[in-house]
Amino acid sequence: MRIAMLGFGSVGRGIAEAVSTKDLGLTITALADSRSAVIDADGIDIRDVLQRKRETGLCGDPAITADDVIGSGVYDVLVEVTPTNADSGEPALGYITRALASGKHVVTSNKGPIALRYDALMQQAASSNVQLRYEATVCGAIPLIQALEMGLAGNTINGLHGVFNGTCNYILTRMTDEGLSYSQALLEARELGYAEADPTYDVKGIDAAIKLVILANSIWGLNVSLKDVDITGIDSLTTDALALAEELDCTIRLIGEIIPEKRVLKVSPRILSKDHPLVVRDTLNAVTVETDMAGEVTLIGRGAGSRETASAIISDILFIRDCYVERT
Amino acid sequence: MKLEMKDKPGQLIAALKPISDVGGNIMAIIHQRDPAAAPGDTVDVQIMLEIPETKLESLVGTLKTQGVNVVRIGEERLLIRRSVILIGHIMHTDLTDTVDRIDSSGLAEVAELGMVMPAINEPSSAKITLKSASLGEMGRAIDLLRNVATEKDLLVIEPLEGYP
User: Fold this and answer.
1) Any chain A CB within 8 A of the CB of B85?
2) Any CB–CB contact under 8 A between A204 and chain B?
3) Closest by Cβ to B159, choosing from A243, A270, A278
4) Which CATH number fits domain A147-303: 3.60.9.10, 3.30.365.10, 3.30.360.10, 3.40.190.80?
5) Has domain A2-140+307-325 been given CATH number 3.40.50.720?
6) Which helix (H) or strand (E) holds B48?
7) pLDDT digits (tens, 9 = 90+) for A234-271
8) Under CATH, domain B2-72 is a member of which superfamily?
9) Alpha carbon distance B31, B105 (integer Å)
10) ipTM
């Protein structure tokens, strides 16, 4: 099956690497980064493109654009992995809209468009008779959306709570283990590449809140936005507070929580017993889903990273291939 | 309350049904059956329950007619405990007032307070354990504490439901 990819940062390269080294039956026929693009209906030579990107900073010809890729028609699924813009969702929102309008399936890792326009995008996909899948937007490699849609099909989902931000989880783990101050732990996270130069999105709980918005809208159709989430970050936590939690045989984690019945939509640092399944270490993510038949189901895994996000994207692509493309 | 009843099938249900009939809430049942007991012996059962005070007398009467003897009725105990952590200028925003507002609410009592104060002007951290008679009252007491904390610009870290 042929895929076109927009975005050639660490996630895009992770996908390209998996497609070129694993026998997945996928061919990349078009590819764009922010300043150039390459289109080849017979399949792009990934090693060539990776080398060109390393040497020139461009993946292809500056005269070709992302819109040319979308309009090229030489693909079955558009993979949209450009950087997230949580305010407008652009340019990704426009890319996704145009691909859906031209009757193409879309797979994205981009939280912006899904958090901002879930309903409209899904309606558009349905009216074009194509799929829009977004597993990679929440909890990286953890197949959460798939588990909710397929694995737990038929269950009533009563609520969920979890650790949705690996950066915060790393900082809290280090503050607990080594007694580091918040700013020391943040500095360490930055040095290891776990935190951005501007860590605001992560440490203030905004990244976790965006994921809750996606889940609230996609699982329950709550039609909420970021301003509806009650958000408290970890940036005013003290090492003393973690030590006090320790006295209770507990620790503190940044927990995102949705309980539709009680109208709870909240990100906040919470006290948890140390043996609670959501007390995961370092950059791991974990989510507990509360259901009527299956009871509580907890998924734990890597929430970020190039290969991990590629895993979620590829799973969505193969799902579309197996369930939609090869059946038609 | 502690009950004494005949060790025969159906006796326990005979004791529990009147409790729910008067709108009582059974919180725990401790039923230790002596394996050496002979048929016809009596067994002791302890039941922890919530019931409106006005219904207590009629409940005891109903139990007696069922052949269940009320050995002892215990006093009300604050069974539910919840610990929260506060971060901020806890002393300078009148800690006594914070504790008083909880205690005087009648919803819960502050049972324990542990506090760590770093350098002056640095935010301090405190662990507060509340005791309450019911989950409902505990929930309202924590709501109250949350409001007081917002007013005093303190961060409240609450347990994830059910913990600790």
Assistant:
1) yes
2) no
3) A270
4) 3.30.360.10
5) yes
6) strand B42-50
7) 999 999 999 999 999 999 999 999 999 999 999 999 99
8) ACT domain (3.30.70.260)
9) 35
10) 0.85
Please confirm, yes or no, whether A211 is among the known catalytic residues. Answer: yes
Query: CA of B16: how far to CAs of A100, B30, B47, B70, in Å?
Result: 62, 12, 9, 13
Across the interface, whether the CB atoms of A248 and B83 are under 8 A apart is answered yes
Residue ranges, CATH 3.30.360.10, chain A = 147-303
**Tokens 């640095």 label which residue?**
B122
> Given CB atoms, is B159 within the 8 Å cutoff of chain A?
yes
Over residues A130-187, the pLDDT tens digits come to 999 999 999 999 999 999 999 999 999 999 999 999 999 999 999 999 999 999 999 9
Question: Residue A44's Cα: distance from chain center in Å?
Answer: 26
- Tell me the shortest Cα–Cα distance from A210 to chain B, in angstroms: 20
- Would you give the end-to-end CA distance of chain A in angstroms? 13
Q: Is B121 on the interface with A (CB under 8 A)?
A: no
Q: How far is A245 from chain B (nearest CA, A)?
A: 8
Is CATH 3.30.450.20 the right assignment for the domain spanning B80-157?
no
